[in-house]
Design brief:
- The structure is a homodimer of 282-residue chains.
- The mean pLDDT of chain A is 95.
- Chain A contains seven helices and 19 strands.
- By secondary structure, the first copy, chain A, is of the alpha+beta class.
- Chain A folds into two domains: 2-63, no CATH class; 72-281, Fumarylacetoacetate hydrolase, domain 2 (Alpha-Beta Complex).
């Protein structure tokens, strides 16, 4: 099943994605919808009984599927090729940092930078939690996954490197597009492998496969839940494959007008136009 | 003015602290109360008109004043003596990392550790935001401060050092006590200087003065607001002075039964009993 958060006329709605459009759900977005423990049944029932409420695809705008997570936790250095590109060794533990709900934005949002000229891309598979996890085993964590979506952990490398802690370069408001759909685990298996692709103006810069993740989704959720509770609607980003701009010689960063495309076949594509607004660009 | 979040019989209430007790406010806690833009006036009015609702101090339990911040952001390495103790140089930029609302706990809560035996203390002044800050100047940030409270950024040093990012050692649920009161800026001026003291079983281990902060409260809020919006009820921890266990030779960590006291004269004291539950301690 594919789920989405959409704008239809003046309404914001959670919805099931069906052929040619959407069947609306009784919630304003998927963050709210996933907090109902019956969400899986409710989504199935909506498809069976809800065709009279069908919204055609061209009547709706797709929004950030998960606008109000209580936690957004990211794993760095999780693809073996990206780890080697950054000059590091394969890790024993996942490298984790946090973002906020405010960091996220819509799948087709424009991305602005006012305070950094070193804006880099990081195409990622994102995992959305479907029920509470506390000290969970990997098996329990796997069963609690609501689904998968696409993210780009756009990073201000200058701010990321101002101090030892990456957080400030990773938490600029409205810089992590998420979406377009939440795909349930019965339709997508990242352990078997899905491609994670990033393009700039159509030129492919990243292509990795989630089967090469050092820490798979269930492993990450289990590990995180050993120190902090994960709840329905929380989001975990699984890291980026090789091909980021910082790893290039010379380093390459986003320029005004660049169109950043982030795709995971089986989920969908984010398309974000970038605008640099720092004074040097004015 | 001193404000608190209290438990009175079955009710949770925000309250103004007055001689011998509390005058309740129309909110369940200060997180909720601060979201009302009129909170300053409402608190003053409650004191004038609310004496008939007086709750005696011994009838109430003091809780975490700010249970549901949308952001908890911490500054590391901010006291010159602690920076030198850790073998580092004075920073050009604040070192920032995030916690969650779940990381916070009550001023007199018991603190448990199930997964770490390297549990260290970090007494800190915490700043609570009183209104929205976005790209704010230091002057605007100063005016937006709701008040100050006490925190102990209890840190799992083994987890903190598993990777380059400190976050996982800083975000264990229920390990950062906060409180007991929120003191408004007219009663407390950390730039002029307040003492930040930590004791273990009555033995003083930390004593610093906020006038030695590299980045003062308004400077931190202004800096943070240059990349992410701060809102009423958000919490910023300003860093810890010298005297943490990790800096001792040999390193010293909390043991089961230790009573950790964290005090800022003019605000109050946190008193937390620590219990180690890892198997080696069983």
């Amino acid at each position: 099943m594919k789920l989405a958060s959409i704008q239809f006329k003046t309404q914001r709605l959670a919805a099931v994605v069906v052929d040619g459009g959407y069947v609306p759900l009784q919630a304003q977005n998927l963050s709210e919808f996933l907090r109902d423990e019956q969400w899986r049944n409710l989504a199935r029932q909506a498809v069976v009984s809800g065709s009279s409420n069908f919204i055609a695809a061209n009547e709706a705008t797709i929004l950030n599927p998960i606008p109000t997570p209580t936690k957004v936790i990211c794993c760095g250095l999780n693809y073996s090729d990206h780890i080697l590109e950054m000059g590091r060794e394969l890790p024993e533990y996942p490298t984790l940092f946090a973002k906020f709900a405010d960091t996220l934005t819509d799948p087709n949002a424009q991305i602005f930078s006012e305070n950094s000229e070193s804006v880099d891309w990081e195409a990622e598979l994102a995992v959305v939690v479907g029920s509470t996890l506390c000290q969970a085993t990997e098996k329990d964590a796997l069963e609690a996954i609501a689904g998968y979506t696409v993210a780009n952990d756009i990073s201000m490398r200058d701010w990321q490197r101002r101090t030892l802690q990456w957080f400030q370069g990773k938490a600029f408001d409205g810089t992590t597009p998420l979406g377009p759909y939440l795909v349930t685990p019965d339709e997508l298996d990242p352990v078997a492998g899905v491609e994670v692709i990033c393009r700039i103006n159509g030129e492919e810069v990243q292509r990795g496969n989630t089967r090469t993740l050092v820490f798979a989704a269930a492993s990450l959720l289990s590990y995180i839940s050993s120190f902090t509770t994960l709840r329905a609607g929380d989001v975990v980003l699984t890291g980026t494959p090789g091909g980021v701009g910082m790893g290039m010689t010379p380093p390459r960063f986003l320029r005004s007008g660049d169109v950043l495309s982030t795709e995971i076949p089986g989920i969908g594509e984010l398309v974000n136009t970038f605008t640099l607004r720092v004074s040097a660009d004015a």
